[in-house]
Amino acid sequence: MATKRKYLIAGNWKMNKTAPDGVELIEGILNEIGSQSEVGVAVCPPFTALESAAKALADTNTITLGAQNMHPEPDGAYTGEVSAAMLRTLYVGFVILGHSERRQYFAESDAFINQKVIAALENNLKPILCVGETIEDREAGKTLEVVETQLKGGLVNVDKKQAEQIVIAYEPVWAIGTGKTATPEMAQEVHAAIRKMLTDIFGSDIADKIRILYGGSMKPGNAAELLAEKDIDGGLIGGASLEAKSFGKLVEAALAQTKADG
Ligand code: PEP
């Protein structure tokens, strides 16, 4: 069951951690994971903690910085918003886009998320595009339909040459922050379907290179079995990313799976 893609373990801190608390967490994570490079590791602090986080990461390539959102316009009258170029000046490499909390609480549409994906790519930021169904969608048998709409909607006009830069995160909404995890089989079924959708859009050479992360109550106790699935290439982690030990254990699980994959 060889996975050809480098695993990515990305922490979504959401609206947690002040700047000093963020630095402490990063120091703790670096302590836990050492200087390995076989697994990609990213942390996504709130905007206010990005600059101090960038400084705390200045001497290492082990962890890449990510942001949790951005506005598609380069500048202008968008009070409270932050542009891709602003993130780049803070050495941000990834940006989470279309998280279900943004879709739910800030009414973000697929079309708006798509504008952000395009702007991120134009600015050399790797989008982590989140897709996932609600419990109502799943119970109505609409999981793949919903995921396909969000995926295709988010990827309109993405250039084939840039597509490899994109990371997809499958995050069933009912599993986020609830302690309920999709079983490995349930997750793999959707990941495989997403890979097929990516193949339809970009062709198999590119689709085989795009990482698809699982997100939704991933923690040290369930990471190994999820990561062992063929199309699960890492995790987007909320709760378990706020503590250095548990996040370190997730990186360890991905390292162990990398070795098992050969
Ligand atoms: C998330 O919000 O991206 C997430 C997966 O959260 P949690 O791990 O807490 O479920």
CATH architecture: Alpha-Beta Barrel
**Whole-number tally of structural domains:** 1
Instruction: Assign the CATH class.
Output: Alpha Beta
Structural class: alpha/beta
What Rg, in angstroms, do the CA atoms define?
17 Å
CATH H-level homologous superfamily name: Aldolase class I
* CATH topology-level name: TIM Barrel
Number of helices: 12
Low-confidence stretches: none
Number of strands: 8
Q: What fraction of residues sit in β-strands?
A: 5-15%
Using the alpha-carbon principal axes, give the shape: globular
Taken in chain order, the helices and strands follow as EHEHEHEHHEHHHEHHEHEH
Order of strands, main sheet, comes to 7-6-5-4-3-2-1-8
Which ligands occur here?
Answer: phosphoenolpyruvate
Summarize the biggest pleated sheet: 8 strands, parallel
Round the mean pLDDT to the nearest integer and report it.
96
In short:
With 262 residues, this protein is α/β, with parallel strands linked by helices. It has one domain (8-73, 95-261): Aldolase class I (TIM Barrel), CATH 3.20.20.70.
Helix-strand blueprint:
Elements: E1 8-12, H1 19-33, E2 40-44, H2 50-56, E3 63-67, H3 84-88, E4 92-97, H4 100-105, H5 110-122, E5 126-131, H6 135-139, H7 143-154, H8 160-163, E6 167-170, H9 184-202, H10 204-207, E7 211-214, H11 220-227, E8 234-237, H12 244-261
Parallel strand pairs: 1-2, 1-8, 2-3, 3-4, 4-5, 5-6, 6-7
Residues 12, 171, 176-177, 215-218, 236-240 line the site of phosphoenolpyruvate.
